[in-house]
Amino acid sequence: MGPNRTGIDQFQLRLPSGLRERIKSRAEAHGRSMNTEIVVCLEQSLSGEGLSEEAQETIRRLREDISRLEGMNEALGRTVKAFVDHLSVSDEGKQLILKKILEDEFVRIPAKEGE
């Protein structure tokens, strides 16, 4: 289903056994319809509102770290490319060097503890 004539998107959903009753109880406790309760729960879940302040702070720090690491990765990629571009080898040789660097860097899978 998609948006109806009121512009509200509709979506048919199958719920696991017992979940409908839990939603109904929660909606009644909050004085809302089941639909509104589902929407509120989804919005809170997607925005992180239902999480503790500590969890939200951890997520914020992790997002900052990811952003910083992505920037470092891009800078490293530019540095490696610039280095390879200055080598006295053919274009084919440069492509082989870059391919080998990428294979070595991105094919590695960290070993799990105990292995």
From TrEMBL:
Xref: Pfam families: Arc
Top-level taxon of the source organism: Bacteria
Molecular function via GO: DNA binding
Chain segments annotated as coiled-coil in the UniProt record: 52-79
SUPFAM superfamilies given in the database record: Ribbon-helix-helix
Top-level taxonomy: Bacteria, Pseudomonadati, Pseudomonadota, Alphaproteobacteria, Hyphomicrobiales
Record carries keyword Transcription: no
Keyword line: Coiled coil, DNA-binding
Domain Arc-like DNA binding residue range list: 9-50
Name this protein carries in UniProt: Arc family DNA-binding protein
NAD keyword on record: no
